[in-house]
Amino acid sequence: MLIRTFTAEDMPAALQKVKQTLGPDALVLSTRSLRKKGLGVLSKPLIEVTAAIESPAMANPDQESKPPAKQAIGKKPVAKLAAAAYRAAGNAELSRDELRAQPVVGPLEFAPPPPAPARAAEPETGYLQRELQEIKAMVQQLAETRTQAPAPAQTMASVPRAGRSVKTQFSSVAEQLLARGIDTEAAETIARFADSRMSAEQRQDPQLQRQFLCDTLADLVQITKPAWGAEADGQRRIALIGPTGVGKTTTIAKLAAAAVAAGSRVALVTIDTFRIAAVEQLKVYAEIMNLPVEVIFNPAQLPQILAQHRDKDLILIDTAGCSPRDLERIDELTEFLGTDSGVENWLALAAHSREEQLQQVIENFSRVPIASLVFTKLDECDNWGILLNLPTRTSLPLACLTNGQQVPEDLLLAQPQLVANWVMGTEPQAQKDAV
Description:
Blueprint: E1 2-8, H1 11-22, E2 27-35, E3 45-53, H2 78-88, H3 96-100, H4 124-148, H5 172-179, H6 184-197, H7 200-204, H8 206-218, E4 236-241, H9 248-261, E5 266-270, H10 278-289, E6 293-295, H11 301-308, E7 314-318, H12 327-337, E8 344-350, H13 355-365, E9 372-376, H14 386-394, E10 398-402, E11 411-413, H15 416-424
Parallel strand pairs: 4-7, 4-8, 5-6, 5-7, 8-9, 9-10
Antiparallel strand pairs: 1-3, 2-3, 10-11
């Protein structure tokens, strides 16, 4: 298989390059937005498309070969998402060979499918599970497309679509999802699925309908494996990174206390030597819990400290916060916690911040490899749709949530049903004992 990467000012131009170089049988593997080096957020964004052709002989021989580009973290092949989109539109699901035969097209622009092949009967449970997976892929594709090519804010009712009047309003299910802060495109997609699957009793009973939506959203939530216990799979080394003031040190203390209560051996480490009294704050927590705490001043010390505490089940690393626009400071963090550090980096985000700001935080902090997301300050939010929007858009799993300042009470380990209940506003205060 020949894999190539193409860069252009917009998606149509990039796809045109794909067609000219690899031909109409090429498959788009991933897309992402880039900015020209040296100009940061002031530069005009570019579109990078990674595509492949199964047989190198089918590519245009006039084009020079380029090394394969790294696939964007968490992006799913467009061919797979295309199949989900066809299915959601009521069309037949395409096979792998049929997808390869489709011409190269842009995101959410699909060529007409071939005649539907005969399909064997399948169990109802398997059909429902596949439907949920397709909805999950659709929601992620919609979120990624919105990130790559943002459009002016508008309501779904103002967007003309085939077979629907311009004045048509949201369905009652979509209105519930929008009221919880879920993206417009995702809300409409989930609502279509719900409308096709709910029973008559669920449609008439608001409580049953809300529970159905909670269960559906739970199938869209991705979580990371537990940081301690039997499922932790050996020693875990976790660093909390993120902007200043999001509660990283307090979250470190909550995680440590919960792990100690579960019988795990824990060590605390800090590389936050910038903030006044940061080391002292962590030492106070460590003294209360009778835990060792180490201070690191340069990257060369980290492997030594990790080796020193190789008998621990969990090593938690506190870091200095910095502005998402301070790329130099973020690069310094990469020297400590880069790909070869053996550390999982959890990005802490304040849930009450604007979603556009948090999207920019994720993009800039991605210079450090991010393993999971942590949302703090849920108690300061009016709704929690962001718990679904950002993880779905970035394909980053959720690790934990915090909803107050109490250590360790206000810590919630991410669980699909728990997150779905928070998003839908189903008795979130009753979830405080989830740790």
